[in-house]
Amino acid sequence: MLSLFYHPQHLVGANLPKTLSKDDPVSWHQLAEYAGKTVEKKGGKRTRNGLQWELNVNIWSVLVLEPLVRQLGGEIYDEKAGKPLFTSPEVVQVMEFLRDLRFEHQAIDPAFYTPNNVVQYFAEDRLSMNVSGPYQPSLIEDTNPDAEYRAAPLPVMEGGERVTTVYSWAWFVNANADDKKQQAAWKFVDFLTKQGKLWWDEVRYPQARKLEVAGGKSINDYRTGTSPTFAVSLEDYEYGRYQFRSTDYYKVASALQRAQSRVLQGQDVKATLAKAQKEAEA
Question: How does the average pLDDT of the chain come out, rounded?
Answer without folding.
Answer: 96
